[in-house]
């Protein structure tokens, strides 16, 4: 059993919890490989996808994960709800709980929103991304992706590149990767780093060329234009010069090294069109779609561990 009732952040997860999630993920990957990708594990359970921000991967993969385990999943659409008539978030959540929901998956633009909902309701909550704070299920699927690729995965060197300041993925991934013993560095200009960067205790570089030939995993972050004033941040030309992954940089990567990105990708900014369109030789190091596939299995494992046991 997990030591937690909700998945709110990485700090709360023990190493045993993380191992349990990853071993169950392998079992659910086996289910996803079958012709009939369905098990009755969560029959009779009701789950709500409460998304106050746009999402393709996280929302759809939670929906698929729930449906593949026979749970009933309801998608809550904030713009079409009574929030528009002035109802508060907590009254909205209490209304939903009154309908006998078993678990809430929440994405919200404010840091701490998932924890707030858990404290107020005391039913299981999964944080599907809260502001700039955390995106723990993304970190778990990323860890699974790395673990499947590297046999001796304790020695893995990871560089996380780009907009650390605005990235909840970076915060969750740095914490999780360090927790399992990876050698983690970040590549980012000072204006894309948070003020409390010391807290993370990682090596900081400003140019991707300083790490490209040394790391096993180059983890590219999305430039989060919607969260900042573009004038304060690097131009596309500067971004391409110091941070982007292009074909020349891919050619300098270690033989077995891999490229990851949580998506959605800004093509031509974080990763060049040529790299995104790689096919044949070399394309197997681009794991962006593999991350998405593992995302469904990781989320099945989490729903099972929180509701099915
Ligand atoms: N990686 C991620 O959270 O993507 P979505 O915003 O599409 O869910």
How helix-rich are the residues, as a percent range?
25-40%
CATH architecture of the largest domain: 3-Layer(aba) Sandwich
Structural class: alpha/beta
Number of helices: 10
The biggest sheet, with number of strands, parallel, antiparallel or mixed sense and barrel status, is: 5 strands, parallel
Report the CATH C-level class of the largest domain. Alpha Beta
Low-confidence stretches: none
Q: Order of strands across the biggest sheet?
A: 7-6-5-8-9
Could you characterize the architecture of this molecule?
The structure is a single chain. Helix 2 links the parallel strand 1 and strand 2. The chain is α/β, with parallel strands linked by helices. The protein has ten helices and nine strands. The chain folds into two domains: 136 residues, Aspartate/ornithine carbamoyltransferase (Rossmann fold, 3-Layer(aba) Sandwich), CATH 3.40.50; 156 residues, Aspartate/ornithine carbamoyltransferase (Rossmann fold). Bound molecules: phosphoric acid mono(formamide)ester. Phosphoric acid mono(formamide)ester (CP) binds next to helix 2.
Annotation keywords:
4-stranded parallel beta sheet, 36% helix, 14% strand, Rossmann fold, binds phosphoric acid mono(formamide)ester, globular, alpha/beta, 309 residues
